[in-house]
Prior knowledge:
There is one protein chain. By secondary structure, the protein is an alpha/beta fold. Helix content is 26%, strand content 37%. It is built from 14 helices and 33 strands. The longest helix is centred in the first third of the chain and has 22 residues, at 3-24.
Amino acid sequence: MNTSTVLLILLSVLIASGLSYFQYFYKAKSSSKTTKLLAFLRFISVFGILLLLINPIIIRSSFETIKTPLPIVVDNSASITDLKAAATAKVVYEKLISNSDLKQKFDVQSYCFDSEFQSADEFNFKGKETKIDLVATNLKSIYKNRTFPTVLITDGNQTSGSDYVFSFDSNNKVYPIVVGDTTTYLDLKINTINVNKYAFHKNKFPAEVFLQYAGSKSVSAKFTISQGNETFISQSITFSPNKKSEIVNVLLPANKTGVQLYTAKITSSETEKNTYNNSKKFAVEVLDQKSEIAIISTVNHPDLGAIKRSIETNVQRKVTIFKPNQINAIGNYNVLILYQPTAEFKSVFELNKNFKINSFIITGNKTDFNFLNQYQSDFEFKMSSQKEDYLANFNTNFNLFAIDNLGFENFPPLENPFGTITTKPTVSVLLNSSIRNVSINAPLLAYSENLGKRSAYLFGENIWKWRAESFVSKKSFDEFDVFIDKTIQFLASNDSRKSLIVNHERFYNSGESIEITAQYFNKNYELDEKARLTIAVTNIKTKKIKKYDLLKATSNFKVNLDGLTSGSYSFTLKELNSNSSYLNTFEIIDFDIEKQFVNPDLSKLNQLASQTKGVVYVPNQVDDLIKNLLENPNYKAVEKAIIKKTPLIDWFWLLLLISITLASEWFIRKYNGLL
């Protein structure tokens, strides 16, 4: 307390004493015990009230000992079981977690990881994936800006995620405990198969296969790719201690349409400990048609290349760029992209009156809007010669097709002449315009569907900047390319809009999350959030049926089909109120990535330990690890002073005391007839 507060308290004592004396002793003829008690109660009441008015701050100090965190993280993936190391991992964990000296020095916490990272003290070693990089990111978040060691009980075999060696903070030591037999066994393995999801009927499609060998002698192996009883590829591969890998590039025929399942296999005369990783299945969907898209432009612009590359990431699309006077066989194309049309496009528009090909019109500073007013009826343009930058605002009520907000509000502005764009009733707007973050109630990207003809409009050039910005923020073009592909998909189909739209893959790997999403639209083509969607999944071979309800998500309904084994499935998705239904099939390919390993990845764990200045241990060296941690002088407990300041007015007991003294004084005076 400062000096002024102390002086005020002393003054309060004098005032309270003076009032008590004046009330009960001044000019009093006698002083009984009752008078003294009443004077004391009056003193307490007045002094308490004055204290509340002064409201001094009461400071209380306490001390807390903060120990260094010691996360013990256990690999809970199925590969631990496959390497027959589950029991060992549990023994090592129990020895660490129960050590009283470690508990005295450290704040010991236990976690596990597989496809997710979580706090745990029991482990089943059934995880379908191993993401060791999750350990690094989560520990950084939990123990932010702190120095601590990490004990990692694992085989080091990562199946997905980024490289964990460089994910951990190099200032915090990691002590891997390697579980599993580190003895090197001869092993042939199909590591990775790179193949497109789609191929076209009667064409050949490429496949790239990465083969891997572990062993100390030269081995001759046979590599095949087959489908059923038919073998397409058969060739001999030689490995040696100096040649541990091989890349095989082949072309496979797409002779049948639909989802085609292939098996890649490598065999030898040698005995292997693990033969599960000698074969791997992969699937390709063979399509019998391809969309042809024509981009027509009179100007050279970076947008043209960006749009072409974006569209052609979907192998079903082929894009050709023309000038208006170069395109003759317009009927051969499924979609026309008309880039900044002018009067030179007159022949294209006239031809398209007969063919009625869906079009995507993109405007910009070179566009002739008077010409556009004559050849389309979805918008009316009154534009000036002044240029303007337009930012995008995502319309959450857009329901022509399912689309996510890619962060359009953060994309660079598009450039277009300033003016007024009047929208007709047949138009659905996905992106609205704003100028310097002020909405102008005008479309930026819109779609229309009228009498079976579909159109899309983008009012602004420099969409190539959007694709570049998407890559900068997401480290990939994928999200933007999917957004463009959905526009092309909308335009490439002339089918009338369906009320039930379902999204799913045609094939999945076993162990993957099998998620199916759906949207149901009412008769006004509004997203019906009260729809009741169910799905019945049938195993084509066993005829066993499983039924699920779809749950409402942000902009759709979704279901996760957990627990399905490998095989072919058909499914029927229904909306119960309208009885609308959707039927299709998918394939689950037999592939367990956790069974691909013969040994722990000791070299990778050594890299991790070296990167973080830690040490790799094996299970019988746990005592050495405990000794290292206990003797390390860098990990000391810190005593932290906690100072708590409490205003006196927050003291409930003081208020209660004042109330009791006032009440007691009144009752005593009343009882003694002094009132």
